[in-house]
Design goal:
This protein has 1593 residues and is α/β, with parallel strands linked by helices. Helices cover 37% and strands 18% of the residues. It contains 51 helices and 64 strands. The strands form 15 sheets. An eight-stranded parallel sheet has the order 49-48-47-46-45-44-43-50. Strand 21 and strand 22 form a beta hairpin. Helix 5 runs parallel beside helix 9. Bound molecules: nicotinamide-adenine-dinucleotide (NAD) and zinc ion (ZN). Keywords: Amino-acid biosynthesis, Aromatic amino acid biosynthesis, ATP-binding, Cytoplasm, Kinase, Lyase, Metal-binding, Multifunctional enzyme, NADP, Nucleotide-binding, Oxidoreductase, Transferase, Zinc. It catalyses: shikimate + NADP(+) = 3-dehydroshikimate + NADPH + H(+); 3-phosphoshikimate + phosphoenolpyruvate = 5-O-(1-carboxyvinyl)-3-phosphoshikimate + phosphate; 3-dehydroquinate = 3-dehydroshikimate + H2O; shikimate + ATP = 3-phosphoshikimate + ADP + H(+). Its EC number is 4.2.3.4, 2.5.1.19, 2.7.1.71, 4.2.1.10. Homodimer.
């Protein structure tokens, strides 16, 4: 080692044994060898740490050992598995055996290199090995550095609990090398910061202040690699490195100090357990998903709230603690998503937590001990304080109840409350800037403590513009102003503003005031990612125009900014002020310090929020600068000058908050005086006392800066008729609460108007008040811009209402006012007040004198009632389908196809319009104008809905959504019926519309119309149909139209085989973009029942690299593209990272938006993770229509046990929320699969059990994938990656099932004669092979239906048979039962063995007709129900043809046969069918239509197109209506081109032709499916069969 590194030492128990620095490895080796002579040095570390540092240690120790001249000691290393599980007896034994094997003796030195796990375990080994050997701690996690390595506690875990066996054993040294933190995962770093913040909080306010202000800088230290050993010496140490080291050292110092005074843990040492009493209880429930520090972080806040509730700790301190912990990425409440997603989260009940706390080591007797903070940096006692359960319970519970005793008259005691409410945010921010820029000292009182004010203070300090100090435990801020002299912050230090918007705007101008001789070093202000998107452009433009030098460092118009220290020029400044009044205030506040007096001209449209500009000007006057405004203009003159600090400035209370205590006085008949808010208030809501409370009968006394309200005797509030609350909209909720009990006037009504904007606040507040007041029995009426409340005597209101707050602070506080006169009122979400008044409930108790109790709401699990939100409303299958969309989007085309598919009449609203008005749409507009047309169109909508509200398909005109009334009608309709928005790319629409002019021209560019209408279409519709020819595969396929419209009308395309006793599968598509794979989809999906689209894995080609959230449009296009390639049901999955996917964990809203999109796209299955908010899930489920919800739970930890309560509780939740349950664990051993199997067997045996997907991840879990029955996820060798480890392919699973005896091989036959050339064996055997099925299909050629056939049918492995000529009738006597089709046709071509009532029976079916029908349908779906069809021939096949046509709804079926008598027999056989005999093939009876479907069932040789006299049927040209789109099927098997098909190709090219072999294939697919329960892999089978067919032609 060249020179000794610079080391900071901390003393513990009288020794300087803790050494801190950077890059210490050589130093460690040197020090250890020089001062701890030994025969063996054994270093223990784990597999995470070893790759980074082990070789450096080996080198350093070898080098030092080589220097020794005496006997060379050995240097041993041992690398063990990481993680808490090695901290066990076995883990300890393993190390001991290693040491023994290596013949280590008492003079060994053991080195523990790693986190707390290694330190605790290795320390304990050292404590007992050979009755104790020397050891050295080399902690590599922050937690280990500041906590576990200091103090000498060592331990291991046992199944009975953590750290139960151990010893105190002090290390010889603790080497803290902060450079190790550069490789530590950031979550682990945060974990350690929780302890650091904790230590500062109990002990050292200065240290705490440094922590709360410097998070970004501290992160810089661990995020910047210190290459070249930077930091080893002070000379190379960066500012951030020095800070990091000082923070670590500071924290260690406190712990070392406490340990030294109290080594064996009596009282004082308990102080370091701040946050741990509640934190440990939380950890016990949430481990291992949540880390210790994360739980302690939440514990600290809850324990601080205990202190606050006791009236000991101020909210200021709680707020600082919250912000400091958040700054290090730590959770601060049980509502944090990281917590709520944990499997255990739902069992974080109050009782459970209190129960766990009961066994805390700190307790003495039954009382729980909590470290009570008295302020930041100090505790209430020098030890933990005993606290009653009820106090803790109140903090932990999520709901509250104001305790009221109506028998006591509150006003009797003439209670007079005097208090201040939290400071106004706007005024606080302005006051900070003014006081800092002023000369002299100012004491700011009632400052709001928020993120905004916090970063503002830090920034002003960094600019050396002012200094700050706290007095009165943080109640008063002493500002020593800098008279406007500011400096560029020190090199490399950026001013970080987080997401504090006001601070960013005010400080931009403040930074231009900085003036320095060297203008090349600039001031940089920056913020978090969100801040970097918020606009600052107009302000920068104005300042640049004025001569300031401001550069955008990243994107134009946003932070970060580089501002040159040139001072502010002044003179005329022009500013666009229509976006934010904060730009104006920013310039006003700084203007006095410009080089010239400033004239500020506001330009560019209406100025926004004038009251805030006035507020700034008024406050500037208080600080000595008088702004003047040219009357009637937006021009302001600001003189030059320096602000002068008043000795004290009391920040006004927030006026909206002030309404609550005043209203409580009003409703209870007591008196309340609010300080810091009076008649001179700068805020509109301050008028509430005079404009509302006085009118209601209160006595109101208002001075300039104080307001006192005394209420009438309880029950005496007066209803006041109309009140316009436009100037104080936020106060309307408070007014509603009072109006509920206000009487008198006309009908006890209070009509609150002028508050329409409150519909779009945190929630729709008008609705919220109406719905929640109803729970009290209070009636209301909604108005356009407000509501009427009908007051009732307070003692008649319903008691015990449970108020839902929509997470809106104002709803909660308003109803707590009502709760003071209505006993047992529960406010469900107490924490929502934190937004503006975090200690409201404590103030209610401690300052207003009402008792507030905690209430535990029934847990979601136990309550049967679903959460609030829309009830499940089953959609109506018969409701008409309404189609809307842009003109040119393909509404009519899609609508007609849908109508054919659904066999429902089609109504085109345009055509309806024309027939009603006897004039075309275009002409109507021309004559009457657009407005008249719109009215007429609305009427048309009304009429159609009335007359054709069910059983139709209706296409609406594109302009219908222009009319608000029509939009409302559509939206209402969409609640129970399908409204489909047909979407098509705008470019396509423009091209298409350019080509037609049948309808009125828009009179404006189509694109404009599109932009305006698309949002309306989207809002009116509940489904989206994508009709985009741009997509791969072109225009929406008929198959997709069929699937989509069937789905939304109650015939969903759900997966086959999801039924008891069957096995179903889905294929996971793991592509970032599915389009390149579409051509492989038929191969990929062979055998499966559905495909899963892993939406979280999708990545748009031009995607934002930072965002893992695929855009909505991209997802839509992907689903649409997939639909072109397959009609299989889609499982739409957005898997989060926590659940093993790639979707961000904190983007719940985005995830649900995509899931909602899936429902709009009529996706069949939507996978929802049950750890998401239940409210969102039930809301989604309420919109699911005919789609199904897969409620899924994944536990990747490997700790979930299938026989554990956790799984049962997850199962219960998932069964309640989903149609299909999915639970995924991880197998560590084969046995885990048996446990799973047991669980599934038990669960499925319950009556009404939902289908369950239950799987274990990992290779050990493969067996569960084989045995799982419902929708087993499978992969395919062609996929880019497996969706999950251990996944198998469909074929693999079939083979495995066969080997396990779960899929026995079966034999299938063809009965007939002659059959040697049959294609059926090729057909079926190819199918079996492709699917991996072990079956075989053989020919059984016999002369009659005799013993051979009987033996085949009787064999136990008989799987089924095809029957062909001549046995289709002869076989019938051997069968037990016939299908209706076989019965009607009088022939059997398929035999299926089925189990009925426990017996095997033989079932005869006929699939010939299905083959005919499918051949026709798949080639010309638009034919629908043909008006006329023709069958040539009269044999058995003709019977199948007639049956097929009848099933298609053919309106006429012509029969032609040479022997008319045979034909007549046929007619008689189908008495219900519209069958007509015809005599010639070129004229149709009774002027009937020409057939569009022709099926010939006679041999090819029996037809001819040329010669007469052969005895063959002559096929005339006139047979085909060449203008139609028809289908002709020739059942003749050979030749491929029969005379009939040849004629069709020549005479009617628009007709589709079907060869006999193609019909054979179609009926074969059906057979295959009935036998195996699997779709036949048609593409491979047909290719193989046709190749063979043509090869042998
Ligand atoms: N003895 C005490 O007084 C005391 C105090 C607090 C906690 N503990 C104990 O400490 C343990 C927790 O310690 P921890 O939080 O350090 O966990 P840990 O030891 O499990 O380390 C966390 C993770 O980080 C990895 N890691 C460690 N250093 C790394 C580095 N520099 N780079 C990359 N990866 C690194 C580890 O392999 C591990 O996966 C618990 O067992 C707890 O009981 C003991
Ligand atoms: Zn701890």
């Amino acid at each position: 080692m060249d020179t000794a590194p610079d080391i900071l030492k901390v003393s513990i128990l009288g020794h300087d044994s803790i050494h801190c620095g950077f890059h210490l490895i050589p130093y460690i080796a040197h020090t250890v060898l020089a001062t701890l002579p030994a025969s063996v040095y054994a270093l223990i570390t784990d597999t995470n740490v070893a790759p980074f540092y082990l070789s450096a240690f080996e080198q350093a120790f070898t080098a030092e050992i080589n220097k020794l001249s005496s006997a060379k000691p050995r240097f041993l290393t041992r690398v063990i598995t990481p993680g808490e599980t090695v901290k066990s007896r076995e883990g300890k034994a393993d190390i001991e055996d290693f040491l023994l094997l290596e013949r280590c003796t008492r003079d060994t030195v053991i080195l523990a290199l790693g986190g707390g796990v290694i330190g605790d375990l290795v320390g304990f080994v050292a404590a007992t090995f050979m009755r104790g050997v020397r050891f050295v701690q080399i902690p590599t996690t922050l937690l280990a550095m500041v906590d576990s390595s200091v103090g000498g506690k060592t331990a291991i875990d046992t199944p009975a609990g953590k750290n139960l066996i151990g010893a105190f054993w002090q290390p010889e040294y603790v080497f803290i090398d902060a450079a190790f933190l550069e490789t530590l995962p950031e979550r682990e770093f945060s974990n350690g910061m929780a302890e650091v913040v904790k230590t500062a909080a109990i002990w050292d306010e200065n240290e705490f202040t440094s922590l709360e202000n410097n998070a970004p800088l501290i992160y810089t230290a661990i995020r910047t690699p210190s290459t070249g050993y930077a930091g080893r010496h002070i000379a190379t140490r960066s500012t951030s490195q020095s800070l990091l080291l000082s923070v670590i050292r500071g924290s260690i110092y406190v712990k070392a100090h406490i340990v030294t005074i109290d080594e064996r843990e009596t009282g004082l040492r308990n102080l370091v357990n701040f946050g741990h009493t509640i934190g440990h209880a939380i950890e016990a429930v949430l481990t291992p998903q949540m880390l210790h520090g994360e739980c302690v972080s939440i514990g600290m806040i809850l324990e601080a709230e205990v202190a606050r509730g006791m009236g000991i700790l101020k909210q200021v301190a709680v707020g600082r603690l919250v912000r400091a912990l958040r700054a290090y990425g730590l959770p601060v409440s049980l509502g944090d998503q990281r917590v709520t997603r944990c499997p255990g989260a739902r069992s974080l009940g109050v009782d459970r937590l209190l129960d766990i706390m009961r066994i805390d080591k700190k307790n003495s007797g039954p009382q729980k001990k909590v470290v009570i903070l008295s302020r930041i940096g100090a505790t209430y006692e020098q030890k933990a304080t005993g606290i009653a359960d009820a106090v803790i319970a109140k903090v932990l519970s999520e709901a509250v109840k104001v305790e009221v005793d109506l028998s006591v008259d509150a006003s009797l005691g003439k209670q007079h409350v005097k208090m201040a409410t939290p400071g106004s945010k706007s005024i606080s921010n302005r006051a900070l800037v003014l006081a800092a820029l002023a000369q002299g000292t100012c004491r700011l009182k009632n400052l709001l403590h928020s993120d905004d004010t916090q970063v503002m203070m830090v920034a002003l300090q960094e600019l050396k513009g002012a200094s700050f100090a706290w007095e009165d435990g943080g109640e008063t801020l002493v500002v020593s102003g800098g008279s406007g002299a500011l400096q560029v912050p020190e090199a490399g230090k950026e001013i970080y503003l987080g997401n504090a918007g006001t601070a960013a705007r005010f400080l931009t101008t403040v930074c231009t005031l900085v003036s320095a001789p060297d203008t090349s070093t600039t001031t940089v202000i920056t913020g978090n990612a969100r801040m970097k998107q918020r606009p600052i452009g107009p302000l920068v433009d104005a300042l640049r125009a004025n001569g300031s030098d401001i550069a955008y460092n990243e994107s134009e118009g946003c932070l970060p900014l580089s501002i040159a220290p040139k001072g502010l020029q002044g003179g005329v400044i022009r500013l666009a002020a229509s976006v934010s009044s904060q730009y104006v205030s920013s310039i006003l506040l700084c203007a006095p310090y410009a080089r010239e007096a400033v004239t500020l001209e506001l330009v560019g449209g209406a100025v926004i929020s004038q009251p805030y500009i006035d507020m700034t000007i008024t406050m500037m006057r208080t600080f000595g600068v008088h702004v003047t405004r040219d009357p009637g203009t937006d021009v302001y003159h600001i003189p030059q000058g320096v602000y002068v600090n008043p000795p004290e400035y009391a920040i006004e209370s927030d006026a909206s908050s002030a309404t609550y205590p005043l209203a409580i006085a009003a409703i209870t008949g007591t008196t309340c005086t609010l300080e810091n808010i009076g008649s001179e208030s700068l805020q509109g809501d301050a008028r509430f006392a005079v404009d509302v409370l006085k009118r209601m009968g209160c006595e109101v006394v208002q001075t300039a800066s104080e307001t006192t309200v005394t209420g009438p005797k309880r029950g005496g509030l007066k209803a006041i008729g109309e009140v316009d609350m436009e100037p104080m909209t936020d106060a309307f909720l408070t007014a509603c609460a009072l109006a509920a009990v206000a009487q008198g006037g006309e009908g006890n009504v209070t009509r609150i108007v002028g508050i329409a904007n409150q519909r779009v606040k945190e929630c729709n507040r008008i609705r919220a008040m109406i719905d929640q007041l109803a729970k009290f029995g209070v009636q209301t009426k909604e108005l356009d811009d407000g509501l009427e409340v009908y007051g009732r005597p307070f003692n008649t209101l319903t008691r015990g209402a449970s108020v839902h707050c929509y997470d809106d602070h104002r709803v909660a506080m308003a109803f707590s006012v009502l709760g003071t006169v209505v006993p047992d009122t529960i406010i469900e979400e107490k924490r929502c007040v934190e937004k503006t008044w975090p200690n409201w409930w404590d103030d209610l108790e401690n300052k207003i004198g009402l008792k507030v109790g905690g209430v535990e709401l029934p847990r979601a699990e136990s309550s049967t009632a679903a959460s609030p939100g829309t009830p499940f409303s089953p959609p109506t299958a018969s409701a008409s389908v309404i189609i809307i969309g842009m003109r040119g989007s393909g509404k009519t085309h899609v609508g007609m196809l849908a109508s054919a598919e659904l066999s429902r009449p089609f109504i085109d609203a345009d055509a309806y319009f024309e027939s009603k008005h006897k004039i075309g749409v275009r002409e109507f507009v021309h004559v009457n104008g657009w407005p008249a047309f719109r009215d007429a169109e609305t009427d048309v909508l009304k009429e159609i809905l009335k007359e054709a509200g069910s059983g139709h398909v209706i296409s609406m005109g594109g302009g219908v959504v222009e009319i608000p009334e029509a939009r409302e009608m559509l939206k209402t309709y969409a609640k129970t019926g399908p409204v489909v928005h047909v979407l098509r790319d705008i470019k396509e629409i423009v091209t298409y519309l350019g080509e037609e002019n049948a309808r009125p021209a828009y009179g404006e560019p189509v694109v404009e119309v599109y932009k305006r209408r698309e949002p309306w279409f989207a809002e009116c519709a509940n489904y989206d149909f994508i009709n985009n020819p741009d997509l791969a595969g072109g225009e929406a396929t008929n198959a997709e139209v069929s699937r989509f419209f069937r789905h939304i009308t109650g015939q969903p395309n759900l997966a086959q085989n999801v039924a008891a006793g069957k096995r179903s599968y889905f294929l996971s598509l793991t592509y970032p973009d599915v389009t390149p794979a579409l051509r492989h989809i038929p191969d990929l999906t062979t055998g499966v029942d559905a495909v899963e689209l892993r939406v979280d894995l999708l990545r748009a080609p031009d995607h934002d690299a930072l965002s893992a959230i695929p855009p909505r449009a991209y997802v839509t296009a992907q689903v649409a593209a997939l639909r072109r390639a397959t009609s299989l049901p889609i499982v739409f999955t957005v898997r989060t990272i926590a659940q093993g996917g790639a979707f961000p964990d904190n983007a719940e809203k985005d995830a649900f938006e995509l899931l909602g999109l899936a429902l709009r796209l009529a996706v069949e299955y939507v996978d929802v993770e049950i750890c998401e908010s239940e409210r969102l899930i039930t809301d989604l489920a309420s919109r699911k229509g005919f789609s199904q919800i897969v409620a899924s739970w994944h536990d990747w930890s490997g700790k979930m046990k299938w026989n554990d309560d956790v799984v049962s509780s997850k199962y219960a939740i998932a069964s309640r929320l989903g149609d299909i349950v999915k639970i995924v664990g991880k197998a560590n051993a084969l046995q885990d699969n048996f446990a799973l199997y047991d669980f599934v067997a038990k669960a499925s045996a319950q009556p009404g059990a939902k289908p369950i997907i239950a799987i274990n991840m990992g290779v050990e879990g493969q067996m569960s994938r084989i045995l799982n029955a419902t929708l087993s996820p499978v992969t395919h060798p062609l996929l880019p990656s497996k969706a999950a480890p251990g996944q198998l392919s469909f074929t693999q699973i079939q083979k495995a099932l066969n080997l396990l005896g779960q899929l026995p091989a079966r034999r299938y036959f063809l009965f007939g004669n002659p059959i040697a050339h049959s294609m059926s064996p090729t057909l079926h055997n190819t199918g079996f092979e492709v699917l991996g099925l072990p079956h075989t299909y053989e020919l059984l050629e016999t002369t009659d239906v005799g013993e051979h056939i009987k033996a085949a049918l009787a064999a136990p492995d008989f799987g089924g048979a095809s029957v062909t000529i001549p046995f289709k009738l002869d076989v019938i006597p051997l069968l037990d039962k016939l299908s209706p089709a076989a019965e009607a046709i009088g022939a059997v071509n398929t035999i299926i063995p089925v189990v009925e009532g426990g017996n095997r029976i033989l079932y005869g079916d006929n699939t010939d007709w299905v083959g005919i029908r499918e051949s026709i349908r798949s080639r010309a779906p638009s034919i629908g129900a043909p008006a006329a069809a023709l069958v040539i021939g009269a044999g058995g096949t003709a019977r199948a043809a007639i049956f097929a046509l009848q099933s298609m709804g053919a309106q006429r079926i012509y029969i032609f046969n040479r022997t008319a008598s045979k034909a007549q027999a046929l007619v008689d056989a189908f008495p219900d069918a519209p069958v007509k005999l015809i005599k010639t093939l070129d004229a149709w009876p009774a002027e009937g239509p020409a057939p569009t479907v022709i099926v010939s069932t006679v041999p090819a040789s029996a037809t001819t197109v040329s010669g007469a006299g052969t005895g063959a049927v002559l096929l005339p040209l006139a047979l085909f209506d060449a203008a139609a789109n028809g289908v002709v099927v020739d059942m003749a098997y050979r030749p491929a081109e029969t005379p009939l098909l040849g004629l069709a190709k020549r005479a009617a090219p628009s007709w589709a032709t079907v060869m006999g072999v193609e019909v054979l294939l179609e009926q074969g697919y059906v057979q295959f499916e009935t036998w195996t329960g699997r779709r036949c892999p048609k593409h491979v089978v047909s290719k193989t069969v046709l190749e063979k067919y043509f090869a042998t032609a």
